[in-house]
Amino acid sequence: MAHIREVARKKAPNGVAYEVLWRDGDKKLQRTFSVKREAERFAVKVEAARDLGDTTRSLVKDTTTVAQMVLVSLEASRPRLKPRTFHGNERLYAGRVLPKFGSRRISTVTRAEVQTWINELAAEGLAPATVHHCYVALRKVMKHALWDRRIAFNPCDGIDLPKSQNVNDGELSVLTVAQVEAAAAELATFKPYDVLVRFMAYTGLRAGEVAGLRVRDIDLNAGHISVRQTAQWIKRIENETGEWVLGTPKSRRSSRDVPILDRKLLADLKALTMQHPRSGDGDALFWPGRTPGSHRVDYDRVWDVATFRRNYFKPALVRAQLPAIRVHDLRHTAASLWLAAGFPSYQVSRWLGHASVVTTDTIYSHLYPTDYSQHMAQFERFAAG
Predict the structure, then answer these.
(1) Are 327 and 174 in contact (CB under 8 A)?
(2) Predicted confidence (pLDDT) per residue in 80-113, tens digit
(3) Whole-Å CA distances, 197 to 166, 176, 307
(4) For the chain, what percentages of helix, strand and coil (3-state, to nearest 5) are there?
């Protein structure tokens, strides 16, 4: 049974406060009020919860902060996340969530405050997808708090998010075959990066998959690339240092075999394999990195997409007078070329390593061939019969 007692408190009105004391199982709980009537009402609430057989621990004023709950949520998710994803989440919390809510008691955050925060992020000019990522991060923390009975409801429920725009509004930055060859030609003095441009444009591998590609992953006899490993640069937020981490592709379907459909590229890869200084070591990384302070390549260093973009790819595009596309757009280029060649979307989806063909359809549907002559003939045969 809940018991109320008077206690001396200097900051309370008349120097008296009222403690409500009760037991929940083997745990002693209490709440303090400055007005006796509020204490009496709370005691009735405790008794009502006990009569229904509910726990009363959620009625205790919780001092857990959002920052403390973020740590709990992160540690709970660590075993099932890849290192790059985990540290990406850490940076997102540190950069967006904690500055706004970190010091707040988690039980005091309201839906209105979350909505205001979302509106502020959108007003900063952040892309709708970025705002959505921030929202999901906070919602995960609030879910953990709800499961642990730190809060009675999730303040992230019912939030109006900015509408996501269609991927590139139906437009993608891609190169034609002639443009790919022109960009590669501008890197002829920086071998093997001329071949690398063609490789990425004709195989569609992600940057992390390119960095993690090993000598034994280039299957020249079968004529395909075995995507089984990635290399990611992980930056630690606690000390601003970083390291290369080898891992597996982002999803089960991302582990795949990608055909080498260009004969010249296949011949170039054979030549590079023969010239590779560690060609006898199947675990050696295939593509070299850059020697710091120069443009010389170094097979003992991991290939880094940021370094490649800054020192080689962007200058090559300028010299070739080509659009200022991203390195990732070479992946879009591969998809557009495959679809233009008439390969079915489900096949392109597998080669790209998409988790679902729906992803491929969403991004590249506007590139699908629109020759309906076969459909017309089929319909005419049906109508005539």
Answers:
(1) no
(2) 888 878 888 898 999 999 999 999 999 899 999 9
(3) 28, 13, 14
(4) 50, 15, 35
Contact indicator for 368, 340 with CB cutoff of 8 Å: no
Pick the closest to residue 107 from 164, 167, 65 (CA basis): 65
The identity of residue 62, as a single letter, is D
For the segment 182-191, what is each residue's pLDDT rounded down to a tens digit?
A: 999 999 999 9
**How many Cβ atoms are within 10 Å of 83's Cβ, its own excluded?**
14
Those residues with Cβ within 8 angstroms of residue 346's Cβ, 6 or more apart along the chain or in another chain: 357, 360
Map tokens 């992980």 to a residue: 234
Q: CA angle, corner 238, sides to 154 and 140, nearest 5?
A: 15
> pLDDT tens digit string along 261-293?
999 999 999 999 999 999 999 999 999 999 988
| pLDDT tens per residue, range 350-370 | 999 998 888 888 788 766 555
Rounded Cα–Cα distance for residues 314 and 306 (Å): 11
Q: Is the sign of the CA dihedral 314, 336, 130, 82 positive or negative?
A: negative
Six token digits for residue 374: 């076969």
As given in the structure block, the two tokens for residue 262 are 């260009």
CA 176 from chain center: how many Å?
Answer: 29
- Which two tokens mark 370? 């629109």
Number of H helices, E strands in the chain: 16, 10
Quote the tokens at residue 373.
Answer: 């002559």
Rg (CA), the chain: 30
pTM, 2 dp: 0.69
Phi, psi of 374 (to 5 degrees): -65, -40
Residue 61 burial (C-beta neighbours within 10 Å; 0-12, 13-18, 19+): exposed
Percent of the chain with pLDDT over 70: 93
pLDDT per residue as tens digits for the range 306-327: 999 999 999 999 999 999 999 9
* Spacing of C-alpha 300 from chain mean position: 29
